[in-house]
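Our consortium's second objective concerns turning raw sequence data into structural hypotheses that experimental partners can test. To show how far this objective has progressed, the report includes one record in full. It was chosen at random from the queue rather than selected for favorable results. The single chain below, 317 residues long, was entered without modification.
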Amino acid sequence: MSAGKRIMVIKLSALGDFVQAMGPFAAIRAHHRDARITLLTTRPYVQLAEASPYFDEVWVDTRPKPWQVSAFMGLRKLLRSAKFDMVYDLQTSDRSSTYFHIMGDPPWSGIASGCSHPHANPDRDSMHTIDRQAEQLAMAGIPVTPPADLSWVKADLARFALPARFILMVTGGAPHRLAKRWPADRFAALANRLAAQGIVSVLLGTDHDAEQIEAVLAACPHACSLAGRTSFIDIVAVARQAVGAVGNDTGPMHLIAAAGCPAAVLFSADSDPALCEPRGAVAVIRRDDLAELDVDTVMAALTEGPAALRDRPPALA
């Protein structure tokens, strides 16, 4: 029984990794149904975590540097305050592992040296994130980890005035990893091809993606942008209404796939889909250099039901 117990889950970042922890979050909640579960995360994920049914409270890790003595001691005091009965470290980074000792060596699932429930697989770094976390939890006594389920997400989308038939496009990504981006002119050509079929391309992104988004909008007057206007919760709700999605290997594509939206995700040599591809109705298209990826290939993935979608209806008709 978990009644009266205090459980902590650690998942700090990044967006794709946070989405891929949704199944483990659900597994931990089901295993500790009557416990008080606290999530330790970073500020961008607080709203999504608080809206979920998995946590009773959400704490923010500001990730202070060691020389920021006051902030670091404040975090130490916070972590030690609750006397957690079990900690599931799903971040499994050097930083999160140091919290094991800061917290006084509580019962711990992760990779911290000396922890009670280590993920004792020397090949763990060669596993897909979802499979790695499921195995970690199995070694800690939670045998079943379900797929991510975002059916609990609710949002009012009226303010977006979405078109009747649209596809989501995620043209950007991490600003320090430009090799992970398909060229903007290819997205624009794809948007024009889709427009000819009566399908509007709706672009998602942030200020970091402005150049790519503006290039697509300039080349395809039928496209529209929600850049800078959507929360993570909004993206999930919008994805449920989309007929499909296409984008680079970046966080929002994980949200879109987890929402159940058929998606084509574009990978370069900068990341390995075997380790991190979104799960779901997903077609992975990989080229070492995305500049070598042609529009016809991506269009076919969206319209013809490639191998990754072979048992599903075409994403677009």
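The partners drew two points from this record. The domain at 158-309 is CATH 3.40.50.2000 (Rossmann fold). The chain is about 35% helix and 15% strand. Both points have been shared with the crystallography group to help prioritize constructs.
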